[in-house]
Amino acid sequence: MPQKTENRRRKPLQSRSRQTVEAILEAAAQILESHGPEQGNTNRIAQRAGVSIGTLYQYFPNKEALYAELARRFIDAQSAETERAFATLPLRPTPELVAHFMVTLSQLDTLSPRLQRTLFELPGSQALMVAANARLEAALVKVLAREPDLEGRDLEMIARVLVRAVDGVLRDTTLREPERADDPRLWQELTRLVVGYLEAGAGQPPDEPGRVDPPGG
Amino acid sequence: MPQKTENRRRKPLQSRSRQTVEAILEAAAQILESHGPEQGNTNRIAQRAGVSIGTLYQYFPNKEALYAELARRFIDAQSAETERAFATLPLRPTPELVAHFMVTLSQLDTLSPRLQRTLFELPGSQALMVAANARLEAALVKVLAREPDLEGRDLEMIARVLVRAVDGVLRDTTLREPERADDPRLWQELTRLVVGYLEAGAGQPPDEPGRVDPPGG
DNA sequence: CCGTAATATGAGGCTATCCTCAGGTTCGTC
DNA sequence: GACGAACCTGAGGATAGCCTCATATTACGG
What is the pTM of this model? Predict the structure, then answer.
């Protein structure tokens, strides 16, 4: 078990130490992005940041806290970016706009795939992800609420499915077939997925479209 | 760095040792599922399996190889299960059948979420996942090829998008909102997603539906 | 320019965990 | 029942990586 230290974290007051903290976080991000989680040890991070290991532990009680802060910032930035993209959508998004939106999302995902992956694997970042997704889905609900065709349907559930489906495609692709992340055909199909979904059963009330019984006992 | 050992792995010949190997793999799976990757150390695995640590290393050159074998079996089993489900689909799947299919998939994902997650995070299992997904997508292409409405469309791309979208929704949900994995409304929306997608632009040739330029220089 | 607080240093203590190895036990066969 | 091969044992060597702490350096107000 790694030694537990209580909140021994010193708050950076002077601009000198604030720069130090930034350098440490930046170094951690760089190492995780270019060398993967295996290489992410505190000694190396400190070295890359150009500070001593002791300095690192002045500002972060332990390695996990450092990564947690990194994850917090990353997710915050991504959420803000995505919400901004939502905000630019006009009242009735055309397929072209949806497609454009897909591209924006895909660029976000392409940004630092390996860092992203590592951060998402941290024990603590689950909670952050849930919060971020909740924010995103809430923002999407607002957009969907403008659509008269969707009246009466379960907007929360639709937002959930949409966000996760699009995210699944983009994440899988950037992580496993990064060379295809640029392929316009992928965006086109993604757009079709979204538009087709939103138009499917449009107007009809939410009365059991395709009743299913769970199979198996 | 963990000591590298070459292929020192002894092949289990007698049924006694074959049982031992099974016990080790089973123990590893149990520990990963119930206590997470942090608790997955070889000493503990051996103890749980009821064998000595030395025995474990008779059959697995190192910890990674053990996990790799676990991942291989898991992915193999899941792929086989999914392909079997595909095989049962009739020539023209109705929405009801698609929904039923979703439920099958979702049950697969619910099986051992934590083990699954851990295995997918292993450095080596990326390649396996790619292979498994390729298999799945190939199987799906065959199913899609029966659909006259999809003639002329890029079936590989459609399969890619479908598999990853559905997978994204199911994985996200089982991992982060497991209580909702049972929700029939989720299956209904998933079904709508799939059916809506397949029907969107049905019959029209693949001539740029929604032309997009990548934004940002 | 002096005192104090903030900041920085880095050798090394310490732990967790991987894996080895020298020697014991069980199995199959003649 | 004897012999070799397969199988098992577990104390501990080796190492990677977290984090401490005693000490040094820098910033800043008076």
Answer: 0.81
